Amino acid sequence: MAVETAFTGRRVLLDSAAEVGPATVYVDAAGRVARIEREYRPEGAAVDAGDRLLMPGIVDGHVHINQPGRTQWEGVVTASHAAAAGGVTTIIDMPLNCIPSTVTVDAYNQKRESFRGGMWVDVGTWGGVVPGNAADLVPMLEAGARGFKCFLCDSGVDEFPAVNEAHLRAAMAELAKKRGTLLFHAEVDTGATADAARDPTEYATFLDSRPPGMEVAAIDLVVKMCREFAPHVRCHIVHLSAADALPAIRAAKAEGLPLTVETCFHYLTINAEDVPRRSTEYKCCPPIRGEANRAQLWAAVVDGTIDMVVSDHSPCTPDLKMHPCCGGAPIAGAVEGDFVKAWGGIASVGIGLPLLWTEGRRRGLRLQDVVRLICERTAAHSGLAGRKGRIAVGHDADFVVWDPEEQNRITVDKLHFRNKLTPYRERQCTGCVHQTVVRGAVVYDAARAGADGWDRGFSQQPLGRWIGSDE
Ligand SMILES: [Zn+2]
Predict the structure, then answer these.
(1) What is the structure's pLDDT at 396?
(2) What pLDDT does residue 1 have?
(3) For residue 470, what pLDDT is reported?
(4) Residues with CB under 5 A from ligand 1 (ion)
(5) How many CA atoms lie within 13 A of 259 on its CB side?
(6) Are 93 and 99 in contact (CB under 8 A)?
(7) For residue 240, how far is its CA from the centre of ligand 1 (angstroms)?
(8) Is the pLDDT of residue 348 over 80?
(9) Domains along the chain?
(10) Terminal C-alpha separation, the chain
């Protein structure tokens, strides 16, 4: 009989349709779930979660690792450590901010090679659609890209230009051959700019330069393109911020179009009114909006209009944030804490679970909804429905063991990503991750931090794997 490893607990949640109850999950030598018994059996178990919750590992479908090329912003070791410490067992990298950007098979292969030996969790990547690379798309899908992302406005980096309707049509005709997925950064330039007469260290100056109409106009275009290629190309709106776009999204879904939508932890947990002056760690595009907008996003999460929640972890070095913490403004004409000129992006991979849970439980979110929003739906979105996001026979044995009742202050020593600027520092949450398991192997164990070979709780070996076409 093949060797099996057992993971057990009194409070196990297998998937979003299940109830919390005792279970023992037996994992085969290949790291897959072999069988499940609805009983608590601590004798000989590799992991005994006891009264803590054991649930599927989190799949974060929107992470900017920035390696190769901008590894000083973020790299695979630090990003996957942060993921592991937060119960995230799979991250899907974005095709931009690394150099080269992931828009050819060659660039895809460079990223895969660069990540070798540095992954503490499983990692895959989206490819990019840029003007003129339509012929590269099917080969990239065949190489293992999970789908593609494009920008309808300036991406912030020169290597990843925006596409227009003609580019989209060429790309989607290729994707239709393989039922590919296209992700849209859904903002278009509507002529809004920052008012030079206003104080750039005030958040409102930046917020008013990215009005909701930029998202609404972009999403109208996404829906139109989605309809044109339905049902052959699934279209996905990344990081929805503007609640004004929800009616168009609801209508498109009611029409039966293959459209999915994500929002991010920051849009659900932060109000524009609360962003302090000069605190550019809160800047991202589209921007965090006001409290009334946030309430509408929550309603859309609860009613299922918004399919999933991701981090959009997108850090940079502190100098590019022009943050007061690093003394001064590096760009000519910028001031310290300049919201208009600072790089946009929020660092948060691995801290989403307590953020979502703390805020969500007050709004009626159940643990099953958490599993649906950040495990199941994100796995399916990344083409991993049969393999990740649930605890089920034949699936990868990816688990997180956490305590949903435990108080947790997000102190800097708990931040494992490379650059520690984040709006969540010192935030008080409920919910604390204790262990993370990837394909049957413990990759993070808070209780072992400091023990021999368990630097800060991480396994000595990087046990994550590249998610390519071969699996
Ligand atoms: Zn992003």
Answers:
(1) 98
(2) 53
(3) 63
(4) 312, 314
(5) 29
(6) no
(7) 11
(8) yes
(9) 57-381 (3.20.20.140)
(10) 25
